[in-house]
Amino acid sequence: MKKxxxxxxxxxxxxxxxISKMTGEPxxxxxxxxxxxxxxxxxxxxxTIIDWAKLGQEQVWALVEVKIxxxxxxxxxxxxxxxYRFPQxxxxxxASGAYDLAILVxxxxxxxxxxxxxxxxxxxxxxxxxVTHFILKKYKEDGEILTDGEDIKRLPISL
Length: 159
Description:
Blueprint: H1 2-10, H2 16-23, H3 27-39, E1 60-68, H4 77-84, E2 89-94, E3 101-107, H5 110-121, E4 127-134, E5 140-141, E6 144-145
Antiparallel strand pairs: 1-3, 1-4, 2-3, 5-6
Helix pairs in contact: 2-3
């Protein structure tokens, strides 16, 4: 069963028949496993990764670190829920280290992200501070290499 999920995670376009051939499991079993996993929210979403820059649709991404005061009886969960409900918050993670939450934010411009942080995120009552790191270039996303095999050239080191 694990093999079915590993195959789907790499390529969600494969049909149950193709997965059956790859795993040796009967097609009807593969279909049942997939349907049950969808129903139980083991499979949450099928995703296509698009390199929007190649289509001329630039997006601005930022990783925002947020330090918050955990709330009594709910810890970080209540604040994380408030934050992940914002459409700008693409991903939200509880993290170890100097900051409590790591948020991947997407906007059309740097100004969009700045407005989100200054008007929506930072004013939340338990937010103590934020640090924003703008993503300058994506090399790999969700396991997919995004560059066109450009050779990275290093200057020779001379002694």
